[in-house]
Amino acid sequence: MRWYLVVIFAYILAVMQTTLFAPHLLGLSAFGGAVRPDLLLVMALFVALRGEPAAVFIAGWCLGLAEDLSFGQGPLGVTAMLFGLAAWAVCLIRGLLLPARVLTQVLLVLTVVFVVRLPQQVLLWWLAGAPVDVVLALQRGCGDALYTAILAPYLLWLLARTVPRSGALSQ
Length: 171
Fold this sequence. Notes:
The protein is mainly alpha-helical. The chain has helices at residues 3-19, 39-50, 53-71, 78-93, 102-128, 134-162; strands at 28-30, 33-35. It has a single domain (3-162), classed as Arp2/3 complex 21 kDa subunit ARPC3.
């Protein structure tokens, strides 16, 4: 895998996610908190649709660690492990998907972001010793998943145009 592409895009997306999607700019305030798209998870899904399973888990874990370091929501490694497992799971079922279709991209991103966000919120509250509010976790997970799913086809299209298909992520 050409890691320099993943690093360059991860850096750009992390900067965009922390600056452009702050609550007072393009981030939304809803459900008792900030709702923001998860661009690094979309990048992990892009790698999952193109890379080898072992490299996909490592790339997903690294992208999750970048999000852990960017937002500092809790202990390091929670988001990293969830990203790695989600990317690996998508890599295993990618043969059943039609990733070139926009509807498939939206539904895949919607599902994966929700499946990652819900346990992430619950785990972070539980590890912090705060009371776990499942309804609030569901609301924030839905908000993040919807916002990410709206932007995902554009980001996936841009990544597909920038990263050549012929072995760029398989070497």
